Amino acid sequence: MLRALWAAASGMVAQQTAVDVISHNLANVNSPGFKATRVEFGDVVATTNPPPPTGESPVGAGVRVVATMPSFLPGQLEETGQPLDLAIHGPGFFQVELENGDILYTRSGSFHMGSDRRIYNSDGHQLVVSSWDTLEGVDAGSIHVDTGGRIQAQAGGASHELGQVTLVTFPNPAGLQAVGGGLYRQTDASGEAETDSAPGEIWQGFLERANVQVVEEMVGLIMAQRAYEMNSKVVQAADDMLGMANNLRR
């Protein structure tokens, strides 16, 4: 019965994690480029001494959260008409550079031009653009980004090439570490960023919306709530049984 208590308690903790993840997904339903997270569960098997006879399975000891992994299914591309709203049609990621020189990766393409005529995201991190050529008189409205990431601007009646946005891909994007703000850090699980694969096209004037499916999240929320309720009833039943066992000699 004590094992039942611990198993049910582990179920309640696991379902609480599921609700936490669902609430995070729903809270970011309007965050550009946000990728929903999924919880993976795994059963826990108790270690017994002596071990169970060959051919018999040990009694389980509950559940644990094995992993919380982002889903990189594409979100809907929505036209905004803003010249520095960029969306990726494909599996690639933008690169942004932090003040300390670290490179992070994102699917959120909401950018703006800074006073130094460089391109930044909403958090002030600079978009990595190779061979960037700052040109006087250029504003965001005069910039054109083609599907291959080449940035051009009209100034003085002529077209000037300003730089190249290079997209990257990863062998295992699910292994990226989320650091907030729609940004991800490369890890050993994700593998090295690659530039020679097919990252997709850049669509200027579009934003990728969050890939959160509200109906699926609500169904998941109901299931997690019911599972939490059932586990709490197991705790109550096990407690009642322990109470009855304690009162046998009275």
Give me the Rg, rounded. Answer: 26 Å
Order of helices and strands: HEEEEEEEEEEEEEEEEEH
Please count the helical segments.
Answer: 2
Based on helices, strands and strand pairing, what is the structural class? alpha+beta
Largest sheet: 5 strands, antiparallel
Give average pLDDT, whole number.
89
Separation of the first and last Cα atoms: 20 Å
Helix content: 10-25%
Strand residue percentage: 25-35%
Strands of the biggest beta sheet: in what spatial order?
A: 9-5-6-15-14
Can you tell me the overall shape? elongated
Count all strands and give the number.
17
Spans of at least 5 consecutive residues whose pLDDT stays below 50 are none
List the helices and strands and how they pair.
Blueprint: H1 2-27, E1 37-45, E2 60-70, E3 77-79, E4 86-89, E5 94-97, E6 103-106, E7 111-113, E8 119-121, E9 126-127, E10 129-130, E11 143-145, E12 150-155, E13 158-165, E14 177-180, E15 183-185, E16 201-204, E17 206-208, H2 214-246
Antiparallel strand pairs: 1-2, 3-17, 4-16, 5-6, 5-9, 6-15, 7-8, 10-13, 11-12, 12-13, 14-15
Helix pairs in contact: 1-2
